[in-house]
Amino acid sequence: MTVDVCELVRLRSHRPEAIAEAAARRTRRPLLNTSGRLMIVAADHPARGALGAGGRSMAMANRADLLERLCLALSRPGVDGVLATADILDDLLLLGALDGKVVLGSMNRGGLQGASFELDDRFTGHRPEDIERLGFDAGKLLLRIDYDDPGSLTTMESTARAIDDMAARRLPVFVEPFISRRDEQGRLRNDLSAEAVTKSIAIASGLGGSSAYTWLKVPVTDNPDDMAEVMATSTLPAVLLGGEVGGSAEEQAGAYEKWRGALQLPTVRGLVVGRSLLYPADGDVAAAVDTAVGLL
Questions:
Q1: Torsion angle, CA of 44/267/200/136, rounded to 10 degrees?
Q2: What's the whole-model pTM score?
Q3: N or C: lower Cβ tally within 10 Å for the chain?
Q4: CA 263 – CA 260 distance, rounded (Å)
């Protein structure tokens, strides 16, 4: 699909209500596909100021290019839906790309990449009432916990209230937890050791007054052999976080193998992958997406 930016701008300028109309017309489907699996393409990175992909620091800065990649990914067999912020989902609604797809609204984007307040991750994206009003299917939030940063406690509390609000509406919410810390240069790093991922899962699973609608979105640990023990920490359904993959074909192939093994675990129901599929090393989005779908 070629994205007509002029037409998108015309609609946004002259008929902003067209977005709500498109949302109301959207054909919905169950969260899980007939095999009980879920394959979601993620594109909520730009709203956090994280525009880099595949070794290019501004890869995601061209919105028309990003939308074309997303439309291609969503058109591939086996792709269930998309995770994104309001601006991107609004564009996809206007493009008619979300019919029959699962739509996840990204909820907290206030912890801007590299900011001193990165761990005080305010809920500046979709609210539960927005997800309900637009007829979207679920929400997603990021919870990074640094034991040395008080901002993490603010994020934990607001995460718990968001879980409560989503459960009250019977809407699933995908919680992406990490134990994080800053390196000597002050850059935030996520700890992917088995112990850290286990702790993050335990903490996230206990947030809110009900876990009935809570899902986990978890990374594969540094040592993939640890994943069976790590995922035994909770009975909440989970999807694997694809995360940033190195720029070479070999690194991408290695990531696929890590995902393949973890997808066999009983609580793991699918994949949520973003930049490594939208900006693969060889530039072939369709092939990258098809390979990931094949893992399911």
A1: 30
A2: 0.95
A3: N
A4: 5
Residue with tokens 């309900």: 132
Nearest 5°: CA angle at 245, between 264 and 283? Answer: 110
Mode of pairing for the β-strands spanning 238-241 and 81-84: unpaired
Mapping DSSP to helix (H, G, I), strand (E, B) and coil, where does residue 250 land? Answer: helix
CA dihedral 126, 127, 129, 132 (to 10 degrees): 40
Whole-angstrom Cα distance, residue 50 to residue 274? 12
| pLDDT, tens digit, 9 for 90 and up, residues 87-146 | 999 999 999 999 999 999 999 999 999 999 999 999 999 999 999 999 999 999 999 999
Structure tokens at 285: 């989005």
243 to each of 8, 148, 225, 252, how far by Cα in Å? Answer: 30, 24, 18, 11
Q: Which two tokens stand for residue 92?
A: 């996809």
What size, in residues, is the chain? 296
CA 183 to centroid of chain Cα atoms: 25
